[in-house]
Write a structure and sequence with these properties.
Layout lengths: L3 E4 L15 H14 L3 E5 L5 H12 L6 E7 L11 H8 L4 E7 L2 H8 L3 H17 L3 E7 L1 H7 L1 H13 L4 E6 L6 H15 L4 E5 L6 H10 L2 E6 L13 H10 L8 H4 L2 H12 L16 E2 L2 H9 L17 E2 L7 H10 L9 H16 L7 H11 L8 E11 L5 E11 L2 E9 L2 H13 L10 E9 L10 E8 L4 E8 L2 H20 L2
Parallel strand pairs: 1-2, 1-8, 2-3, 3-4, 4-5, 5-6, 6-7, 7-8, 9-10
Antiparallel strand pairs: 11-12, 12-13, 14-15, 15-16
């Protein structure tokens, strides 16, 4: 059985709180989805906004290679003659093979939202689909709120589906629009509807308000669903839509469906991060399959077992989805983990050597002080360099000062002064910034650029502060994580202190030194 993935990131996903795609963003995402192998890409609602119309115009001139571009709309407005309805006309104007329209399945919505009779709603469904079909369109019909409608008024919900089928829609898509239905409800309703209507295949569109959109989508596949709608990373209004990333992985690796090629499946991690970056939404650490933590092992017992046989604590080979196994360095790790991690970073160590024993003790001491190297591999690599006497000193701090001043005109000024010894040269510079850390960063680079010009192409991409002992209030120790990026790579470093400026400085210095280290191998 062939399964179709219908992506609605560009419409439903764009309704996520905090996401606002430009036309250029949408074009980039559409092209990336097409390259990955998504079958249908819902470009948006051309009747509702000019951005979506611009997207369809661009993709008409620069068509996708394989994916079918689909516009979204609704059944005609009750007050409009079908042939003059602006929404339906807009679906014709974008000139695509497929179109998707939604209609009301829940009598509550018909009466209270649409404010027409139940019979008139059936006519709207029939006439809208027939209008599009007569003009050569293949129509997906999204039965909005179908499962809620079925629970409330089974007979009427079935009538709406019959109207869509009789009008000639390509496929009926059952929608759990409010995301409030349980898996066994979805399963039993779909099974009943298939029997009553005599249909063998259908589509599913689930929202995630109970956190069950993925499960409900997969259960529907078991019941004959061939068309799964969802979004990349589960973006969408309220709690989001069914997440296509794990759905594709599960269908392919657990349920033995070929959704995309094996080679494309290996790009799943890259696809997820690509859309995440454009959306400016970070992944959650416990997100399945594609995030850094998905195959990260921290406990010594786990790591030891995985080294013997990865199946002990991994349900798939991470390379199948383009991810990788990681061993985390922490106070929970044993000496074997340190040796393994050191090897990843190009250091050969003997587990029985005094160096490993001393390094293990140092690591436990630093973690007790608040350091955490799981997400700061760059700092850990520098630590190894220092402890194994392979460290190259690029510069030496002689002192720094940071001033924050609020002036009479209400402006807040941050200024940093640093004094460094760089090789045999003394550098004493000052710089302003948007805040004390930014000012310190600017002053450091200003002092170093004449000798290390490669620092001009790095920029800060993330800055995190964690209070380690909230009971001490403003006197608490803080942990700072800084992520820098250049043209080819990104890396994270850490600093810990009771003083946030000092913690930030430690992390900044590590970040700059790591850049110099990797450029001077």
């Amino acid at each position: 059985m062939r399964l179709e993935i219908y992506d609605t990131t560009l419409r439903d996903g764009s309704q996520t709180e905090g996401i606002s795609y430009t036309v250029k963003d949408k074009i980039m995402i559409a092209q990336r989805l097409d390259n990955f192998g998504i079958h249908y890409i819902e470009g948006g609602w051309p009747y509702s906004n000019p951005k979506d119309r611009e997207l369809f115009t661009y993709l008409k001139k620069h068509p996708l290679k394989k994916a079918k571009l689909v516009p979204f709309g609704s059944t005609a407005h009750p007050s409009n003659p079908i042939h003059k309805d602006g929404n339906l006309i807009s679906l014709l104007k974008v000139d695509t093979e497929y179109v998707t329209i939604f209609g009301k399945s829940w009598d509550l919505h018909v009466k209270e939202a649409l404010k027409v009779s139940l019979d008139d709603n059936l006519k709207l469904i029939d006439n809208s689909i027939s209008f599009l079909k007569k003009r050569g369109k293949r129509v997906f019909y999204d039965a909005e709120h179908f499962f809620d409608g079925y629970k409330h008024n089974k007979e009427y919900a079935l009538k709406t589906i019959r109207s869509a089928i009789d009008a000639g829609c390509e496929l009926v898509v059952f929608c759990d629009t409010n995301g409030g239905r349980l898996p066994w409800e979805i399963e039993s309703i779909v099974r009943e509807v298939k029997e009553v209507l005599g249909i063998k295949s259908f589509g599913i569109h689930c929202h995630n308000d109970l956190g069950l959109a993925i499960v409900n989508s997969l259960i529907s596949v078991n019941e004959g669903c061939i068309h799964i709608q969802g979004t990349i990373n589960g973006y969408g209004e309220r709690c989001g839509n069914a997440d296509i990333i794990p759905i594709i992985a599960i269908l392919q690796l657990k349920m033995n469906y070929e959704v995309v090629s094996t080679q494309k499946l290996e790009e799943l991690t890259e696809l997820s991060y690509f859309v995440s970056e454009i959306s400016n939404v970070a992944h959650h650490n416990n997100y399945p399959f594609v995030v850094k933590s998905a195959f990260a092992h921290k406990g010594g017992v786990h790591i030891y077992a995985v080294l013997k046989n990865p199946i002990c604590y991994e349900h798939i080979d991470p390379r199948l989805v383009g991810n990788r196994r990681r061993f985390l360095v922490s106070e929970l790790a044993g000496k074997s983990t340190l040796v393994m991690k050191a090897k990843e970073l190009d250091f050969e160590l003997d587990k029985r050597s005094p160096k490993v024993k001393n390094l293990h003790k140092l690591l436990q001491k630093l973690e007790k002080e608040g350091y955490q190297f799981e997400d700061a591999e760059a700092s850990f690599k520098l630590l190894l360099q220092r402890e194994l006497k392979k460290y190259k000193n690029f510069f030496e701090l002689l002192g720094f000062r940071v001033i924050v001043e609020k002036r009479e005109d209400e402006r807040l000024i941050s200024e940093a002064t640093v004094k460094l010894k760089v090789k045999d040269k003394l550098e004493h510079t000052a710089s302003e910034g948007d805040g004390p850390v930014n000012a310190l960063d600017n002053a450091l680079r200003k002092a170093l650029l004449s000798i290390y010009p490669q620092l001009s192409n790095i920029h800060l991409t993330d800055f995190k502060v964690r209070v380690l002992d909230e009971k001490r209030g403003t006197a608490a120790k803080v942990r700072v994580l800084i992520q820098l990026q250049d043209d080819t790579d990104s890396w994270t470093t850490i600093g810990v202190s009771e003083n946030i400026i000092e913690a930030s400085y430690k992390a900044l210095v590590d970040a700059i030194e790591y850049k110099l280290l990797k450029d001077n191998k």
